[in-house]
Specification:
This protein has 420 residues and is mainly α. It is built from 17 helices and no strands. It has helices at 2-58, 61-74, 78-105, 107-115, 121-128, 131-146, 150-175, 180-207, 212-215, 226-261, 265-284, 288-306, 310-347, 350-359, 363-378, 382-407, 409-419. Helix 1 (2-58) packs across helix 7, helix 3 packs antiparallel against helix 5 and helix 13 packs antiparallel against helix 15. It is globular, with a radius of gyration of 21 Å.
Length: 420
């Protein structure tokens, strides 16, 4: 019965994730064709900062909520679920509010000192206003995934992406002629309103949840400790800080390193945008098939591990690893053979196609990384993940600072290969 439910949830989530991934990738292509590789380069830097601040706002609470609720559901401790969700939201409010205040007040420094472009100030401030809602949404995502109510969680992503796209596309014709300042502000507004709409939608879904679900079952301890939430979330958060921090630092350092190599500011942003904002998103597109499994295996492995069903844990992980490698190897070969055609068809640019061909061998490693992280977190190995990410961060930053100023774009590609 549980296997059938896992397959059904995987099918629902895979289909929805495919649709959202396809729409999101298409939207990125739309933006690239509107603002060009240089414009997409600065956009990528702004969004890198936003992803980092989002990570700080969430601080591991989504994975923690999913795991704890799945464990309590597996033990039939239904009453504890309400306590977990309440403490999770409190945890989220603490971190998201703190992050918002810091980012909003220091947006000038972030834009001028870190990114090196004043056009980023307003978008960063606008995006920071949505952090509170992102934190709340993360808790509800964890709740619905832990309860195996996949459709409700996925539908919120549709609301978020749909709201964002409608707003940006509707007003792009007005803002684009006025310059990139207005365009970046529009993208920030659309993204923020999408996050707010998703949080409101989650609250409405939760209000309509059947209250009888909390009344059934037993509970050995109806008050779930806030410290328990913190003790699990914070190591996951630290690992996420390092992972996201690495990507953010990498994104910020690369254009600067290219400038030190001799490229102009516009050329540096263009190279950065072409690889990070155009080629890599297309290479990652097939991984939408795996996104559902990387999310679903957390509650499944956590529940099996809590019940000491070690054979079931091994079975789930081995099957997901095999499926991941199958898709990754196929995608890698596809991009290596048809990269030029894809570059012309998607971006009308053979240079992007060349970059896709060069980076295609990295696909198996990129896809496996997501699955490995999810599996380790589900098995309560947050500290191991943290150690691995710390080593990764140190190596990559050293390579960026040493290679790119000497070799330019070649150094950039070497960094991607060694770091991945």
């Amino acid at each position: 019965m549980k296997r059938k439910k896992l397959i059904l949830n995987a099918f629902i989530l895979t289909f929805a994730t495919m649709m959202i991934g396809f729409v999101s990738t298409s939207f990125r292509v739309y933006l690239s064709n509107k603002i060009g590789s240089e414009g997409i380069g600065l956009y990528q830097l702004i969004m890198s900062i936003h992803v980092m601040t989002t990570t700080l706002a969430i601080s591991g609470i989504r994975v923690t909520t999913t795991r704890l609720i799945a464990e309590e559901l597996g033990r039939s401790n239904i009453k504890n679920i309400k306590s977990i969700l309440r403490k999770s939201i409190l945890y989220s409010l603490l971190f998201s509010t703190t992050t918002f205040l810091l980012v909003y007040n220091f947006a000038d420094i972030i834009a001028l000192k870190w990114i090196g472009d004043s056009r980023a100030i307003i978008p960063i401030k606008i995006l920071s206003c949505s952090l509170l809602f992102i934190g709340i949404s993360a808790c509800f995502h964890g709740y619905f995934y832990g309860m195996r109510k996949i459709i409700k969680s996925v539908s919120s992503d549709i609301v978020e992406v749909g709201t964002m796209m409608i707003i940006i596309i509707s007003f792009m014709g007005i803002c684009l002629p006025k310059g990139l300042n207005f365009t970046y502000a529009l993208i920030a507004i659309g993204t923020s309103l999408g996050n707010i709409a998703s949080a409101i939608y989650f609250c409405i879904l939760f209000l309509f949840e059947k209250k009888s679900g909390y009344k059934s079952g037993y509970s050995r301890n109806n008050k779930y400790s806030f410290f328990k939430i913190f003790s699990i979330s914070f190591p996951i958060a630290c690992s996420s800080y390092i992972q996201t921090g690495l990507k953010t630092i990498e994104d910020l350092l690369i254009p600067d390193a290219l400038r030190r190599y001799g490229s102009s500011t516009a050329s540096s942003l263009s190279i950065f945008g072409m690889i990070k904002g155009m080629a890599l998103p297309i290479l990652n597109f097939p991984s939408i098939f795996l996104a559902s499994f990387s999310t679903l295996i957390i509650p499944e492995i956590a529940e099996a591990n809590a019940l000491n069903q070690h054979k079931r844990v091994i079975y789930i992980i081995s099957k997901v690893f095999k499926f991941t490698l199958l898709i990754a190897v196929f995608a890698s070969g596809l991009f290596m053979i048809f990269s030029n055609e894809l570059g012309l068809a998607i971006y009308n640019d053979t240079q992007v196609g060349l970059m896709m061909k060069i980076l295609a061998p990295l696909i198996p490693f990129m896809y496996l990384d997501r699955i490995v992280d999810g599996s380790l977190n589900a098995l309560d190995y947050q500290m191991s993940t943290l150690k691995f990410n710390l080593i990764d961060m140190t190596v990559r930053i050293f390579l960026i600072l040493y290679l790119i100023p000497k070799k330019g774009i070649e150094g950039f590609i070497i960094v991607l290969f060694v770091g991945t």
